[in-house]
Specification:
Layout lengths: L6 E12 L2 E11 L5 E8 L8 E7 L10 E7 L3 E7 L5 H15 L7 E3 L2
Antiparallel strand pairs: 1-2, 1-7, 2-3, 3-4, 4-5, 5-6
Length: about 120
């Protein structure tokens, strides 16, 4: 996964069960790459240790902030794409709702129940 976030440290803010996948929502992230992350939702399939999908709220570079302070990026083995730019992605509730929605769509889990565990 080419654009996988290089997470050095992070604080778990929430944990979900999305069908048979585990989803961890991280905040206070220190990364080893050039991006500054506000939040990351990492989705891990059963019996695996590494995420197969990340949904990230990352700071928009200063020169591009006219559209919003944060970019919403989806990262998987097949893609790394900014899907939206908006100030709202800096809000935990708004990010969590959209990140879960995107994760379910990307992994074909639209019908899977979502249970918040933390």
């Amino acid at each position: 996964m080419q654009d996988r976030p290089a997470i050095k440290t992070a604080i778990p803010k929430r944990r979900y069960q999305v069908g048979d996948h585990t989803a961890s929502l991280l905040g206070e992230i220190e990364s080893g790459d050039s991006r500054f992350y506000r939040y990351i939702l990492a989705l891990v399939p059963p019996a695996q240790r590494e995420p197969v999908l990340y949904v990230c709220a990352e700071q928009t570079p200063a020169a591009e902030r006219a559209d919003g302070a944060y970019r919403l990026r989806v990262v998987s083995a097949l893609m790394s794409e900014v899907v939206d730019t908006n100030d709202c992605w800096g809000d935990l509730e708004t990010f969590a709702e959209q990140a879960i929605k995107l994760g379910r769509q990307m992994l074909g889990l639209q019908q899977a129940p979502v249970v918040r565990q933390l």
